[in-house]
Design brief:
- By secondary structure, the chain is α/β, with parallel strands linked by helices.
- The chain has helices at residues 2-24, 32-38, 87-90, 93-101, 114-123, 137-141, 169-177, 201-211, 229-232, 265-269, 289-298, 301-309, and strands at residues 78-82, 104-106, 129-131, 144-159, 194-198, 222-224, 238-244, 253-255, 276-284.
- The protein starts with a helix and ends in a 6-residue tail after the last helix.
Length: 315
């Protein structure tokens, strides 16, 4: 009986030791396979979180089925300076998520101007900036470089049955500021002119700065969402300001040439079409790691898709 008791105790002790070993064994190294395959190469950088708190000005709750990445995952994120005109475009959900996936997001304190954004780069408080205006004369002397990343293209669109062949720059200003109220005022057709402009305030502001700089849209202009344009422009006396770049226009609509130049990206790049807004990444000297990573990714297929979703044509 004594022998049986000793054996039983020994077996129990062995079993407890096995259980303890199972519970105290170190967790398997998730990078072991990667190191075995890649030798001494550094592991890939962590994937940045897709939920950017700056998109809506407050933390965006993650869906119930999605766990948020650990805080360490965003340790390599670079905060860049964004000019006030560029910032709303970079808040677009797809472009924001794409930039954050590249490890970049705008600084929490907004810039007062593009010049302010560039000054932060020069002061070293931001690795790079995103701006829409030309650099100041002294910036180039200070080593500042602009790297084009996209263009926002604006145009005037009418129904295909509208016969207006082209508009001059002066006619564009007149019809958008209310000086032209009838199609006879621009030498094409008759009847009262109905002018539609973008409903989104930031898009309307950028369109104004591009199409009629120094002026503002007439109060007679009707704000409208892009999805409503095909139906609104069915009337032949209507004309609308639109952003080109979110797919092809419906077959019932056509863009009006200005100074006999069609609104295309190629015409803009050659300087023949004036109604575009350039977006550029600004650095001092060669791009640092954060800027270089973003610039490289913006030139691949995923980057082109993110830019297009935000209404931009790639560089």
């Amino acid at each position: 009986m004594h022998t049986i008791t000793v054996v039983s105790f020994a077996c129990a002790a062995v079993a407890m030791g096995v259980v303890a070993a199972v519970h105290t064994a170190p967790e398997p190294d998730p990078h072991a396979i990667a190191r075995a395959l890649g030798g001494t190469a550094s592991p890939l950088p962590p994937i940045a979180p897709l939920h950017a708190t700056w998109m809506a000005g407050a933390p965006t709750p993650a869906p119930a089925f999605e766990s948020r990445p650990a805080a360490a995952a965003s340790a390599a994120t670079v905060d860049f300076a964004a000019g006030p005109t560029a910032l709303p475009v970079w808040r677009h959900a797809e472009l924001a998520a794409f930039a954050l996936g590249c490890g970049a997001q705008p600084q929490p304190n907004p810039c007062a101007s593009d010049h302010d954004a560039v000054q932060r780069v020069l002061a070293g408080t931001a690795e790079f900036a995103v701006v829409t205006s030309a650099l100041h004369a002294g910036d180039a002397a200070a080593g500042v470089r602009a790297h084009p990343v996209g263009t926002e293209l604006y145009a005037l669109v009418v129904a295909t049955q509208n016969t207006v062949p082209s508009l001059t720059r002066q006619q564009v200003r007149h019809l958008l500021t209310g000086d032209a109220v009838d199609w006879r005022d621009v030498g094409s057709g008759v009847g009262a002119m109905v002018v539609y402009v973008p409903r989104e305030a930031d898009v309307a502001a950028r369109a104004t700065s591009v199409l009629i700089p120094g002026d503002r849209f007439s109060r007679a202009c009707i704000p409208i969402a892009a999805a409503e344009l095909p139906q609104a422009l069915a009337q032949p006396n209507a004309i609308a300001v639109v952003r080109l770049g979110r797919g092809l226009l419906p077959t019932t609509l056509r863009a009006v040439p200005i100074e006999w130049t069609p609104p295309t990206v190629d015409a803009w790049r050659m300087g023949a079409y004036a109604y575009g807004l350039p977006f550029a990444v600004v650095t001092t000297g060669a791009p640092g790691s954060g800027a270089a990573r973003l610039l490289a990714r913006l030139r691949d297929a995923d980057g082109a898709a993110a830019l297009a979703a935000a209404g931009l044509h790639g560089p």
